[in-house]
């Protein structure tokens, strides 16, 4: 079924030949889920719930949350530790009571918050033993975004590396066959968790296997100073507190010393254009050069970094090098909300030297590129999927190409009228 959406303004994409249309009309096919056209409407008084005498409307691409953990949708409280090792142990304690049903309900809770705040695609990292059961009826509700599901692998014991990889290989083969019919909604990635939870042997097994199956890779890297201290053999919170608490004391000293986590990953040869470095706020100029040369990208989670009082990402330096950066919220357990709008506003606050235009790209087209959905979502160009949000704006505000990005960053969740994913309305506030 063909459906038309009218708005006072339609923002297509920064990369489009005509990025912005006033009094626009977007036509989408609900069956294919694709956008057929976006053009200027010839109707002066078109009937539509997108138009009202009380406010103006604008349609923009859906936001992309490049990094989260939906199975950790639990709010921190005053007792939640902010020291990383203690935070991890508190999380492990909470997870002990998570049944499969509770994990799915936490995911649905996250999905609802994502969609109702304008997010239409997420990068979700989940351990293999608690990965999505896509046959569960809970996951077939309307309020579900597109998902790049990263299978998380851990294992510091080098002797366990072949067994862990075999388990992953069997899981991937089975799951990949199930997902063939859902490739426009869900796709797989792989996430060797971090340098302090994955052995060199397991990293190498993953690299070898991925040379065959070619999944997108995402790794938590340089989130905390303790990672640099660990890999350089200088102790720190991870080596002194976290690993002993996990009964992994014998792995608290690395077998090989490196100046930084990034230099270690460079040695492993895992950094390339298909690798996402999650966080990267504790990096130096040498690390930035390595990332640039490798073609890897960065997923920035500013509010989660602030939760742990971590160093601020040197975003200006990174963007000046031409490195692609996108935005993520991380899990709710190290944040206040799962809203990319909130993440954008906080990013603008701490990165005052970065334009609203560049920040918006991080929340849309950059996220699509990083999660391997380029020209499919993150844009409203014809033949891309119909993933977009309709916002209301004050009728006295005149939007133009010069102020549109600042206006978008001022939007709130309460300004959302409608969410469309794959050409189908999944949320309508006016109904």
Automatic annotation (TrEMBL):
GO terms for molecular function: hydrolase activity, acting on carbon-nitrogen (but not peptide) bonds. Transmembrane segments: none annotated. The keyword Metal-binding does not apply. It holds the Pfam family Amidohydro_1. This is Amidohydrolase-related domain-containing protein. Keywords: Hydrolase. InterPro entries: Amidohydro-rel, Metal-dep_hydrolase_composite, Metal_Hydrolase, MTA/SAH_deaminase. Residues 58-426 form the Amidohydrolase-related domain. SUPFAM superfamilies: Metallo-dependent hydrolases (SSF51556). The lineage of its organism: Bacteria, Deltaproteobacteria, Candidatus Acidulodesulfobacterales, Candidatus Acidulodesulfobacterium. The keyword Hydrolase applies.
């Amino acid at each position: 079924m063909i459906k038309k959406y009218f708005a006072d303004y339609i923002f297509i994409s920064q990369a489009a030949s005509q990025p912005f249309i006033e009094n626009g009309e977007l036509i989408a096919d609900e069956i294919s889920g694709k956008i057929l056209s976006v053009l200027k409407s010839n109707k002066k008084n078109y009937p539509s719930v997108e138009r009202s005498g009380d406010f103006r409307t604008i349609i923009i691409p859906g936001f992309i949350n490049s990094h989260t953990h939906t199975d950790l949708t639990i709010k921190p409280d005053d007792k939640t530790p902010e020291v990383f090792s203690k935070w991890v142990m508190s999380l492990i304690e909470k997870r002990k009571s998570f049944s499969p049903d509770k994990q799915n309900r936490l995911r649905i809770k996250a999905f609802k918050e994502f969609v109702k705040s304008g997010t239409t695609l997420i990068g979700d990292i989940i351990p293999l033993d608690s990965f999505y059961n896509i046959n569960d009826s809970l996951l077939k509700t309307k309020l579900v975004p597109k998902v790049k599901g990263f299978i998380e692998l851990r294992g510091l014991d080098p002797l366990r590396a072949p067994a862990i990889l075999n388990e992953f290989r069997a899981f991937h083969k089975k799951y990949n066959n199930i997902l063939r019919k859902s490739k426009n909604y869900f796709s797989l990635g792989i996430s060797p968790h971090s340098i302090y939870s994955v052995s060199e042997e397991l990293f190498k097994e993953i690299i070898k296997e991925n040379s065959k199956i070619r999944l997108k890779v995402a790794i938590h890297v340089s989130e905390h100073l303790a990672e640099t201290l660990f890999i350089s053999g200088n102790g720190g919170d991870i080596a002194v507190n976290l690993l002993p608490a996990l009964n992994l004391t014998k792995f608290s000293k690395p077998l090989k010393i490196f100046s930084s986590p990034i230099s270690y990953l460079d040695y492993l040869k895992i950094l390339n254009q298909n690798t996402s470095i999650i966080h990267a706020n504790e990096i130096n100029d040498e690390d930035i050069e390595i990332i640039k040369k490798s073609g890897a990208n960065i997923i920035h989670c500013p509010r989660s970094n602030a939760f742990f009082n971590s160093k601020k990402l040197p975003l200006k330096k990174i963007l000046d090098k031409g490195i692609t950066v996108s935005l993520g919220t991380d899990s709710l357990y190290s944040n206040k909300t799962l809203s990319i709008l909130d993440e954008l506003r906080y990013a603008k606050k701490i990165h005052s030297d970065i334009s609203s235009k560049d920040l918006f790209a991080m929340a849309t087209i950059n996220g699509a590129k990083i999660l391997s959905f380029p020209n499919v979502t993150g844009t409203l160009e014809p033949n891309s999927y119909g993933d977009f949000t309709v916002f209301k704006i004050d009728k006295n505000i005149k939007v133009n190409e010069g102020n549109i990005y600042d206006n978008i960053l001022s939007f709130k969740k309460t300004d959302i009228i409608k969410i469309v994913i794959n050409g189908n309305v999944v949320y309508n506030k006016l109904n």
